[in-house]
Amino acid sequence: MSELLKRLCETWGPSGYEHQVRRLIESEVAAYADEVRIDGIGNLIVRVGSRGPKVMVVAHMDEIGVMATFAEPSTGVLRFAAIGGLTVHDLVGQRVQFEDGTLGVIGAHQPYKNSNPKLDELYIDTGGTPVAIGQPAAFVHAYAEQGDIRLSKAMDDRAGCAVVIEAIHKLNRKTPNQVYFVFSVQEEVGLRGAGPAAFGITPDVAIAVDVTDTGDMPKGEKTVVKLGHGAGIKVYDPGLVVPRAVIDWMVSTAEKAKIPYQIDMIEAGTTDAARVQLAGSGVPSGAVTIPTRYIHSQSEMVHARDLQACTDLLVALLKSKAEISV
Ligand code: CO
Ligand code: ZN
Questions:
Q1: Cα-flanking dihedrals φ and ψ of residue 121, to 5°?
Q2: Is 325 a member of any domain?
Q3: Could you write out the DSSP letters of every residue in 33-86?
Q4: 156 CA to middle of ligand 2, Å?
Q5: Average pLDDT for runs of 10 along the chain of length 326
Q6: d(Cα 238, Cα 273) in Å, to the nearest integer?
Q7: Are residues 314 and 185 in the same domain?
Q8: Furthest-apart CA pair in the chain: how many Å?
């Protein structure tokens, strides 16, 4: 898992430009799939199994980033737009990289006078290397491990992709369901890939695999999820009230298989499941979540035990027939 996670985290792929990540994932899963296709918006859809209930499992491939919008004529620095939810106050000094490898440093005209700068007070300085406007860039920050801790700027949601890929390998085609593993695009800019994917699949039930906030730091969010204490089972977030039948399915499966889990409720943020539940005539949807500190920072922190628990839970859920009646 570690080596795969590192590779996923280090692959360049801001929202709308997920092709490198998609290529990597496709090569990891093709041998285990009954069908692999890419839909019109760019989602990678991997089907395993040919009969039984249709289960959609979704993890997003994209990461937050920036896009060059304007080159200042006097200095050559680039103005930029946000791709996804940036934490603007800690951008100064960060490096970004365009697809051709060009590096830029994010600067501010008065970095120490304004601790809460707005995006239009910042710029990207490539030191004179030209960049065409309209080019997206991803952040640059090395993947690292320390004990059971894993750090990356792209755990959201490459950690989810790693969990799903690992589950596909472990499942090894043994499922009584038709499972559609969707590696979605453009989650960070508004859950845009998940809807079309669900429209095409018309699943009977859906599971998003994504990161979730922890509440285990002083003065942190009031949520019970702790790093290292198991897979999150989503109950509520601002975009999704998980149907009780889906929660019960996940909790009883975790209990039966003795997989550590935690009830996940957060008051900010959501996942692709929020969009999938609204597809067609409605899809019962939930999420298996990865406890993560410092989401949308350069060092999103996850725990190896939680990644394992999420993988085990996903495999256990898919191994039995998913008959959910809400
Ligand atoms: Co995110
Ligand atoms: Zn995410």
A1: -95, 0
A2: no
A3: -SEEEE-TT--EEEEE-SSS-EEEEEEE--B-EEEEEEE-TTT-PEEEEEES--
A4: 4
A5: 95 98 98 98 98 98 98 95 92 96 93 78 96 97 98 98 98 97 98 98 98 90 92 98 98 98 95 98 98 96 98 98 93
A6: 11
A7: yes
A8: 65
CA 261, CA 101: separation in Å to the nearest integer?
40
Q: Which ligand is closest to the CA of 273, given by its number?
A: 2
Active site residues: 187
Distance 297 CA to ligand 1 centre (A): 10
Dihedral angle, C-alpha 85, 62, 316, 27, nearest 10 °: -170
The range of the structural domain enclosing residue 107 comes to: 65-139
Where a domain ends, among 139, 174, 198? Answer: 139
Ligand in closest contact with the CA of 294: 1
pLDDT of res. 111: 67
Please name which of 277, 299, 297, 300 lies closest in space to residue 287, comparing C-alpha atoms. 277
Cα 234 to middle of ligand 2, angstroms:
14
pTM of the model: 0.97
CA of 72 relative to ligand 2 center, distance in Å: 33
DSSP character string of 128-171: T----TT-EEEE----EEETTEEEETTHHHHHHHHHHHHHHHHH
Q: Which residues of 71-107 are buried (b: 16+ CB within 10 A; e: fewer)?
A: beeeeebbbbeebbebebeebbebebebeeebebbbb
The DSSP H or E segment spanning 26 is: helix 19-29
Per the CB < 8 A criterion, the answer to whether 83 and 119 are in contact is no
User: How close are the terminal C-alpha atoms of the chain, in Å?
Assistant: 34
Sign of CA dihedral 148, 153, 159, 160: positive
- Residue 111 makes CB contacts below 8 A (sequence gap 6+) with 92, 93, 117
State the Cα–Cα distance between residues 275 and 225, nearest whole angstrom: 23
Residues 189 and 275 in one domain: yes
User: Rounded distance, CA 60 to CA 84, Å?
Assistant: 13
265 and 235 in a common domain? yes
Asked if 139 contacts 96 with a C-beta cutoff of 8 angstroms, the reply is: yes
Taking the C-alpha atoms of residue 11 and residue 203, their distance in angstroms, rounded to an integer, is 29
